[in-house]
Design a protein that fits this description.
2 copies of one chain form a homodimer. Chain A has 224 residues and is an all-alpha fold. Chain A contains 7 helices and no strands. Chain A is globular and about 55 Å long. Chains A, B: It is found in: Membrane.
Chain lengths: 224, 224
């Protein structure tokens, strides 16, 4: 029924890459220039341990996961290779996510801060668990020889819809995290405040362009 | 290509209503029991003026807008009546949104707080402007006699994708707003903190179920 938006979808992918890389650069400037750098195994500098958390969570659950969603359009290879790229990118995201989450628990331990009281932590940890379940569900549905093409076609719309929901959950987790840090530091109109806002906006725009590029191209790729 | 998810989509709509109403109730308990109530024209109580803002923004840009998105499934009437319900619900959302936004500017004036420095305000005001543009774009594309069925079919996927992006933008605005207030009040594990977290989660789940119910039903309704 729908028109073929394959061409505009490609342009949307480029916008997505742009905002993804922009957010990555802004994140690095923020952590290295304003927040003292990253170090997971620091014994005395809590902040350097904490900084591993936003960096890895963005790289994993937003950038890599978003790129994985667009793999069917960006990876110029057979459909099977695209599927493998999609799966492996999500797996890497999950592994980096484990390190990123353990960094923030380590920071809380070092600084004597309570765990899991904020909305950010609730959204973040739920997203992480659901992400793991979606990955396993995807593996069984699309890679297992037991799943027939019939099953895959039935499961595909659910897999896509759940994947999109997870992308937006991750974006919400990121934005609530940024604003929590922003408010804790009592920032207003300093340069760091502007930088953090632009970083948050870039993350949001990355998510929106990933969603749009995938949604508008959905009729131009096979459903499983 | 996709299977018809009309039946599961109906169940998803019920989940959406449930979380929408739950968020509304939690919002009322929060504002009336913990935050001293709502009053737009209060001269001395800043907080009561502020409280109009989260209440109206949730009712307008999340609840009414979400219900408007589901109108094609929930309003048991002709397609034309569904279109009118969709348009009128969005228009009401826009009007309530204007009052809700002016409430927070009024609060800032009264309390001597700077405007527009936070990520919440940036996301919120951008969403508001884009929402207005999407409404006008929808009016011209789907109600103007000048737009042919051909144009409508071409525009529909863009309108749907942009609408979904706006729903998630509103959710991000709401969650960043809640967490900003939460952090300003330095809440931790008090009852109010839990209530606010559950309210935030309900808002997020409302958005996700609206999206899922509309996305999974997309092949069971005409595209314009």
């Amino acid at each position: 029924m729908d028109y073929n938006y394959r061409h505009s979808s490609r342009r949307l992918t480029i916008f997505a890459h742009f905002f993804g890389v922009l957010a990555f650069i802004l994140m690095l400037i923020w952590l290295l220039h304003y927040r003292g750098g990253l170090q997971y195994d620091s014994y005395d500098n809590y902040d350097r341990v904490f900084n591993v958390h936003p960096f890895l969570m963005y790289c994993a659950f937003i950038f890599l996961a978003g790129e994985a969603m667009m793999a069917y359009k960006t990876v110029q290879a057979s459909h099977h290779s695209q599927k493998i790229a999609h799966m492996v990118l999500h797996l890497s995201a999950f592994i980096l996510g484990v390190i990123g989450i353990s960094a923030v628990f380590k920071f809380h331990d070092m600084a004597g801060i309570e765990d899991m009281y904020s909305l950010h932590s609730w959204i973040g940890l739920s997203t992480f668990c659901l992400f793991g379940m979606q990955w396993l569900f995807g593996l069984f549905s699309f890679f297992s020889p037991a799943a027939t093409p019939e099953t895959r076609m039935r499961v595909a719309p659910l897999h896509r819809a759940a994947g999109r929901a997870l992308l937006y959950l991750s974006i919400c987790a990121a934005l609530t995290g940024i604003i929590e840090k922003f408010t804790f530091q009592r920032l207003k109109n300093e340069r760091e405040a502007r930088l953090m806002n632009f970083m948050g906006l870039s993350i949001l725009l990355f998510g929106i362009f990933v969603d749009l590029s995938v949604a508008l191209a959905r009729d131009s790729s096979p459903p499983y």
